[in-house]
Specification:
CATH topology of the largest domain: D-Maltodextrin-Binding Protein, domain 2
Distance between the termini: 90 Å
Oligomer: single chain
GO cellular component, one term: outer membrane-bounded periplasmic space
Number of helices: 13
Organism: Pradoshia eiseniae
CATH superfamily of the largest domain: Periplasmic binding protein-like II
Structural class: alpha/beta
Radius of gyration: 24 Å
Number of strands: 8
Mean pLDDT: 90
CATH architecture of the largest domain: 3-Layer(aba) Sandwich
GO molecular function, one term: thiamine binding
Protein name: ABC transporter substrate-binding protein
Keywords: Signal
């Protein structure tokens, strides 16, 4: 009798444990897929201009039925947020930001290669498996033709003109990935390939900013377009868009040399909507999306199969003096570059 009671008790314990484990598994599944159903949501962190994101998001939603929420902020701010969220991310995808900004955070990204990787230009392939390249972004100088007068702006050296003091728009490079890439471009171009020698120029340029650093990249190009600043240091896409819209704007590819960097997209590790995140990466790198990126949104595509229209306003790369940085050096020294920039800025 005692043995029978003991066995019954053991059976009760085993069944209770099984029930608890099954309930936990069910709760986890429901959290990931919404009451056991396939998720139809996606949360995207993005520093891209809203006007760039919206057409692509609209197409993605129409094609997949997935509802996308975009959280917009500077790349630096969003990456810090991803780091703070750790193993319990609130976002699913980080869409935008240069490699120099994204690569230090690969530990927070999920390994994934897009279904379109075989069509990506060889030098921009996702070789490490974490960051998919989706557009190519040259650093440029934006000029307001109504404010610049007779001054000729052809490159970085022209920005040291004392008459431009306080009239140059530039965003904080610790908050904006495009601004950080501008600093890298300036260091290499003005240092003739040696970034350490470029700091002499950088100190002079910072002095000419007259203690003005803007909060983000959009404040830079909007500030020039709105007539608050005569020139701005920014990236190609918004400048081309303003020109195509008839604004009194010029675009300058610095005569000292222009660096073209890819922007990236990455899936956040442990993303709640993992499958939807993969669908999104595949979508923005497919032929149709890349054609939209090039010929409607004024970004250079990463697919070798997509051609840019002649009348879109982007100068062929063959007509631009291109230079390169050492990506590994830029990544390894990012913190010290930002520290030195801040030190110079605060001492002026």
């Amino acid at each position: 009798m005692k043995k029978a009671k003991y066995l019954s008790f053991l059976l009760f314990i085993v069944l209770s444990i099984f029930t608890v484990l099954a309930g936990c598994s069910s709760d986890k599944d429901e959290k990931a897929s919404g009451d056991g159903k396939e998720s139809k949501e996606l949360i995207v962190y993005s520093p891209n201009p809203i006007e760039f994101n919206e057409p692509l998001i609209k197409e993605f939603e129409a094609e997949t039925g997935i509802k996308v929420e975009v959280i917009s902020a500077g790349a630096g701010e969003l990456l810090k947020r991803i780091e703070a969220e750790g193993d319990n991310p609130l976002g699913d995808v980080m869409w935008g930001g240069s490699l120099s900004s994204l690569e230090p955070y690969v530990d927070y990204f999920e390994k994934y290669q897009s279904a379109n990787e075989d069509k990506v230009i060889d030098e921009y392939k996702n070789e490490d498996g974490y960051i998919t390249r989706f557009s190519l972004v040259p650093s440029v100088i934006m000029v307001n033709k109504n404010l610049i007068g007779d001054k000729k702006i052809e490159g970085f050296a022209d920005l040291l003109d004392k008459d431009l003091k306080g009239k140059i728009a530039f965003a904080d490079p610790s908050k904006s990935s495009s601004s950080f890439e501008q600093v890298i471009n300036q260091l290499y171009a003005m240092g003739n390939g040696d970034p350490e020698k470029g700091w002499e120029y950088e100190e002079k340029l910072i002095k000419n900013l007259d203690q003005k650093l803007l909060s983000g990249s959009s404040a830079t190009y909007k500030g020039v377009a709105d007539g608050e600043y005569a020139v701005g240091l920014t990236f190609e896409e918004p400048v081309v868009n303003y020109i195509n819209d008839g604004a009194p704007i010029d675009i300058v590819y610095p005569k000292e040399g222009t660096i073209v960097k890819p922007d990236g997209v990455a899936i956040i590790k442990n993303a709640v909507n993992m499958e939807n995140a993969k669908k999104f990466v595949d979508f923005i790198t497919n032929e149709d999306s890349q054609t939209m990126v090039a010929n409607e949104l004024s970004r250079r595509p990463v697919l070798s199969t997509v051609k840019i229209k002649d009348d879109i306003g982007m100068k062929p790369l063959s007509e631009i003096k291109l230079i390169e940085d050492d990506q590994e050096w830029s990544n390894q020294n990012k913190a010290s570059i930002l520290d030195k920039y801040k030190e110079i800025f605060t001492s002026n």
